[in-house]
């Protein structure tokens, strides 16, 4: 990721909806060195923010709705959540929740793109989003997994104005040339029941040791540590409750 702080149109936050908040806190604290603090207010519903030092880097939450999957979600920064939600609808997406205020910290909405991938919109007020990006233990890349790549490109370039850097094997998303994510076309190797989705990648100092640590903590390695030609070393993992996420070795010398 070429972004080191949230910018308009880019990924600004990621949060996990989990069936076992206490277990998830233990797993990710051990894996990434997070310090997780749960908001004590009853109206916060158990919302838990993970920190690295003083920087907020991610959130862990209970499942708030019936049928909500155990999964990581990605939020994108927008100047006006209501206007962005309207653009989502006009571009063929669906707004599932909101827009609605979250105390005094911001305004958000949950949406689904035309290919079936859920994501969030975040209009910052008191809280801008992640205080750290692309450093060990923080969000470093976001990847859209979809069976309809052309439709996805039309949608996201319309809603967010992203730049698209497409090669034969991979498509990268960017903001004015600063790439922050990519897109993978889901082929027959993906089970039919797996829907389109956004997958967050967390930067780590050592992909192989992180994958081993995840396994020892009852997680699962879905994609073994792999070196991408002319790219980073990556792995895809699953936590004990079933949420998928990626890890990669960031370029700390950029």
UniProtKB/TrEMBL annotation:
Pfam families recorded: Glyoxalase
Residue ranges constituting the VOC domain according to the UniProt record: 10-124, 138-250
Protein's recorded name: VOC family protein
Organism: Streptomyces shaanxiensis
Higher taxonomy: Bacteria, Bacillati, Actinomycetota, Actinomycetes, Kitasatosporales
